[in-house]
């Protein structure tokens, strides 16, 4: 690990514009520093900033960037209105990591592309212009949507997939002032040369995540995650879905996919196609086709396209069936015991 | 169990052995009191970190030694240019547990992750950064890391000098007589041991005396290895290894990376510690090599196996040899009139493989059990009925009778506990909600080797005892189970036994490997205790002042710290006997080994039954139930034995569904050399598991009738899970781990 300076930001004002890498829970940043992928000259510790509230606000909920993943997942307001967010959070990492991981850090966590994590490999994301080491390599975890030859990485977060489905907005403060960006558009898609622009300008910090009220979708929302083992594994593919159904017809629909692109993939065409339709497997299957329209393998990962379609259907089916009173003991799992169809 | 006799006429176990005692070191472990090698902090300690090769084949052309040495805290950098010499050629094999002592001998790189420099510094951080600053440059050649890229070569041995092929019976004739011929191909990936505790070593020299703290599974052999390559006498070395945080075979060998630390400590005149990072454990410290196995079973019309052929292709490094002897797993499990097994070796740009929990048997059993299921399916038979039909009454590879074999009892017990009866023959018949459900089974088998061990047992004037042998507790419970055996040898309660172990200045306890440690070290300890008792019997029965006077050797029983006459109810305590003889201490010595050519085939056995649930759309698999019954001779400590068996079965879940180390085929570097990428089962992957034992007396395997339980749980389990996956989905897994996408 390189030598670095450490400073603790006492106030948000001190953090904004600080030169260096923000240290929140450290569960991602420190790992990357240890393997030499990131070597910041200075760490700005934001873990004591008072961004730890989960407050109801006009038309929704506002979550501080330093709210820990485990706190957020157990929050009664989240469990009541945004159960797919709780389920997504609880399906991620391990209890120990969730206790440390912050909301802002989760959004900003780096891709798990193993070539990004290997300083000896070329990587446009880590070292712009060096090429993409993953192309032609081990690409089982890589993108099938929105990728270019510049970068085929996926964003690994579960939380962000649910947030994208809920129309969450990322609140950012920087030296130039405050701004907001939709979660679904926050992470840039790659361009022909590489990973695309950084989501945050120098000195900018995520302060909050704002969630609009889900209205009638509150109790028809689920997150489903396919993974290599039953727990403690990143998604191969995942999906968040929320529906409102009146008189057998879908009146509101949200669908976002995880593990398929450099951002949580909001499926707006599929959502539009769901509206006014009966909540049936046929409807969901058509929507899933639309969700994966334009998908193509970035390597030996064609199977992911099929899997993503299936996980979208499963999430919609579970959402239509309604969110259970209590989240299953294995959140987001295919073995949660609630697919009795 | 009936009393048994040895030469000393004193073998009777029961008061301590057979009890499910909790670990004697348990409190130390959970309170942090158990010191591991990485915890050592001697005065003046320096830290060493290796720089790992970033290519798989080629030469190092430049290392920025100046930059590393300029880093604050760095003391010295060792590279091939200033490597410290060994006393022997690095390829010298002074015993079978010596791997090439790769210690910076040249600028040549032969696998990714090879240590190419050692940086010693005042802090771990400085050494780590120093190693990074070396920024090696290479003249690289294309990597050959997969089975297909690797270069075939001829060899007639696999591992530890065992032959690479076997043939018995007339396979061509048997084939010609057969009714059906079933071929199965199965691939297994490369796997890494990943003990939670990494390889760690602290070396300090006091003049020409060397003290080493390092976790090791074969303390006596390690001492020999280190002495030989240093050119010093083994008596100059003290190696301490009281606790291992897992080993699984990776700690049975002293590797070059560890050896560099010893050399640096001597050169610098200060203690040096090295702890490998997780990623550095991928390459220099062994692994299980990938295999491609092809089995052919030739059956008669009733389903009897007439011929069995098992071929394995596997890789080793370009500079040493250890082959995953998978085909050998077919030697002794099922009856066949003709048997042929072969291994075909290939050289790849990888670190040298090594023994990893159930080496050969794990991979081979996985493939064999799939092949058996394929055959059962072809014959339209229940998989268990098919295995019973082909039950080996003698070992088909040697023609020898089994020393004991309660496999049928295992089948019956596990099948009943599982509820196997009524299993539909065809696949895709059972559901749980939407999930597909399948049942599969496999036979577990593992050999019962004995190594060589020696032990001391010393009775003290107060009736307590000290027992000594340099055993290795890898977490399996040697501190406890061996003490139980020794206490029985001494005829005292285990609480009165002080156990000195895990140090090279004690009598050698052999290798904690091959599932033979309890049997080997246990028999030595028992014999040492019996020797002490025998001496005491002599004292007492020849002393007119003793109530035992005249009872003779066979007329006395040692129990509860007293000698009891067998002809009446008089007895005398050890304290009194020793006091009258004026002895503070009475020392017994014992040894154990298996002499000569065995006249029986010796194996532990088991039957493992698995239930899996598979998502029909997404292919994710969960082992919802796993039940095994095992016959493993005398069980010294049922609690610890069960833990070992469960651990083996869980290892089998990992083998079947998770474990796989991936290289980038172009660079040869790993893409998943950490716990986030290299998966092993987590608790949620093991919702229901049970391991049972069935009673087994084995008068041949060794005097105490002890087999082994450390590895057998892996065998049988992997195949059982794969077969359950087939039963759930109708898809026959052709490679491990079984990925979701292969099922949809
Ligand atoms: C073994 C393992 C398994 C995991 N499995 C999963 C999984 O299954 N699903 C999943 O979703 N995640 C998983 N994770 C990732 C985990 O969720 C993230 O590491 C965590 O959310 C990061 O949060 P943190 O607070 O620790 O971030 P840090 O490590 O502190 O920071 C991460 C990055 O975010 C930046 N940052 C942090 N806060 C802010 C802010 N407020 N504004 C601007 N930038 C900021 C930091 O500068 C840094 O670049 C796993 C991690 C590990 C180590
Ligand atoms: S996929 Fe993106 S992150 Fe991965 S190596 Fe290529 S450029 Fe880097």
Automatic annotation (TrEMBL), chain A:
* Residue stretches making up the FAD-binding PCMH-type domain: 1-216
Citing just one GO molecular function, the answer is:
FAD binding
Q: Which Pfam families does the protein's record reference?
A: CO_deh_flav_C, FAD_binding_5
What InterPro entries does this protein's entry cite?
Answer: CO_DH_flav_C, CO_DH_flav_C_dom_sf, Diverse_Substr_Oxidored, FAD-bd_PCMH, FAD-bd_PCMH-like_sf, FAD-bd_PCMH_sub1, FAD-bd_PCMH_sub2, Mopterin_DH_FAD-bd
PROSITE patterns, per the entry: FAD_PCMH
Provide this UniProt record's keywords sorted from A to Z: FAD, Flavoprotein
- In terms of superkingdom, the source organism counts as Bacteria
PANTHER family, alphabetized: XANTHINE DEHYDROGENASE FAD-BINDING SUBUNIT XDHB-RELATED (PTHR42659:SF9), XANTHINE DEHYDROGENASE SUBUNIT C-RELATED (PTHR42659)
Protein name per UniProt: Molybdopterin dehydrogenase
